[in-house]
Amino acid sequence: MQKLSYWVIVDQLDSGFYEARAPDVPGLRALGTSKAGVVRAMAESIDCFVHACVEAGENPPRAEAWSASDVDGAGDVVSRTEISVFVPSTTGGRRVTDATRGAQLQPATRTTPMSAFVTEGNIEVYLSRLRRTSNTEKRDDLLRFIREEESRMGQSREHFENGQRRVIEGRQRIKKQRRLVARAATTQHADNAAFILETLEMTQALLEEWLDTLSSRREQTKL
After folding, report:
1. Residues linked to residue 31 through DSSP beta bridges, in sequence order
2. Residues 6 or more apart from 140 whose CB is under 8 A from it?
């Protein structure tokens, strides 16, 4: 077995959320209310991502591209943690230098099975948190994160089918929430129910807009 180590950097957003990211695994992020929670989520995500690469016959991201001094100088960092993953000894490769880092990370941003896995996973996490938040600023952050993930999407069948599923599920949630708002109109929960409905409608508009864009791109590709 071979040990691959990845830096996990944690930043605190203005909204109070903690965001964890891994410089060697572009696009993989975790969002939460505690540093320990986002580091744990990133450790699980990195482990899953690396082993998925191996199972798909792809090389996982090269580990140890960043030194401790690189990480400390990367911005307003709350904490940094080194995460280790064990893979078959035939997997892995040389340490990435400054000269090769850009060449290595650029291909990882293309639409591959692994990048699709990361993007879809991130969107599901953000959608789940959107449905539970009662804070306007946090909601705006999460909607922005979803837009960023959507901008990384290609035209894969997986993205399109998941987009369709999210739109259908979103319409069902809105329909159910509207009934709840009507029932709560004269109760102390009226404001909260209305906020949730507003969040669902804002999210739905974003998802439907992106699905329309993706549909148009797929149609143009067929021409």
Report:
1. 19
2. 15
Q: Rounded to an integer, what distance in angstroms lies between the CA atom of residue 19 and that of residue 102? A: 23
Which residue's entry shows tokens 């990384």?
A: 152
Give just the sign of the alpha carbon dihedral 154, 12, 206, 182. positive
Q: What would the pLDDT profile of 162-173 be if each residue is shown by its tens digit?
A: 889 999 999 999
Query: Average pLDDT in the 170-180 region?
Result: 91
Helices (H), the chain: 35-55, 68-72, 98-108, 113-130, 136-151, 157-183, 190-222
Contact 78, 11 (CB under 8 A): yes
CA angle 122, 125, 129 (to 5 degrees): 140
pLDDT digits (tens, 9 = 90+) for 38-73: 888 888 888 888 877 777 777 777 765 454 555 544
Q: Which residue has the higher pLDDT, 210 or 118?
A: 210
- Select from 32, 29, 33, 67 the least CA-distant residue to 46: 29
- Nearest partner of 71 among 122, 21, 27, judged by Cα: 21
Whether the predicted pLDDT of 219 surpasses 60: yes
Side-chain half-sphere CA neighbours of 67 within 13 A: 4
